[in-house]
Amino acid sequence: MKKIGILTFHGADNLGAVLQAYALCEFINKEINFRTEIIDYECEEVEKTRYVQGGNFVKKIPLALYYRIKRHSFDRFRKKNLMLSSNKYKKENIKKCNTMYSTFVAGSDQIWNIGCSGNDTTYFLDFVEQEKRKISYAASMGTTEMEKEKVDELKNYLNSFDAISVREASSIKKLDLPKDTSILPDPVFLLTLEQWRRVATKRKLKKRYVFVYLIQEDVNVLKSAKKYAKENECDIIINKKSVEFILNNAPDHFLWWIENAEAVFTNSFHGTAFSIIFEKLLGADIILKNGKHNNRIEELFDSAGLKECIISEENYVPKKANAKKWLNMQRKKAYEFLKENI
């Protein structure tokens, strides 16, 4: 029987990274019907992000406490929900897992963003033996830009893949891939609303609130949320400031915060994605602090037909993120690609 190994950023204490890892493994196991697990690989650069780096010791104490709470919350979720390999791997021993799997899947998330991985080519499956199958599922480069020499180097790794798919059209251009390369949805879209509700924690909170989820530096999100909350007599929960969120910040709690919000305001791709899944009133900002656009959210809205959910300085009112037909189409595309290529 085939056994599938997924290589992704599951070890990052990042909500989108962990939830997309869970979703892809769950989808291949349940829908494609192949035994699948996430390769428990530790990337040095990703591991660093779990701890406070540099700075004044005294000033670091509150931040270090926050990071500790976060590590504990995410480790609990991983232990409970992720199907991880029994062995742990690092760069020096990753080749050993060739004995465990017949097919390797790279993705999803920004695994091809060499800035995030510290130029770790493990995510280009450079360790996989020739007779094994290698595919990518919705791999992303994020916003990183590379010199032609680096692109050529990475393309040499990709030439040995049996099938390639990316999450954004921009990755096709950046890596100089064939124009017909498959563009597939982030794995979080592969699970249904009911499946995600089963993952979400069960809590009670009597107050009505607007949920603000910020990843990038804020331009229009917080001021829009404040206007809407005032008009609708709601409290505001902010992921970077609210004690309630900081103490309840694990992936299953994040799903609860999204599901039970009166509206969601965000500049995060996965904040946007889960607002679509949970059919929330959504206000997403695509403008970055440097004046450029967040291409990940912009391309998502173009594909899903939800441009009305974009907020700006002039337009702060969130709109219903209803994209059921699009979601069904995305799941079908993903199913067909994985069924054909695994």
UniProtKB/TrEMBL annotation:
Source species: Eubacterium ventriosum ATCC 27560
Protein name stated in the entry: Polysaccharide pyruvyl transferase domain-containing protein
Domain spans labelled Polysaccharide pyruvyl transferase: 14-280
InterPro entries in alphabetical order: Polysacch_pyruvyl_Trfase (IPR007345)
Source domain of life: Bacteria
Pfam families named in the record: PS_pyruv_trans (PF04230)
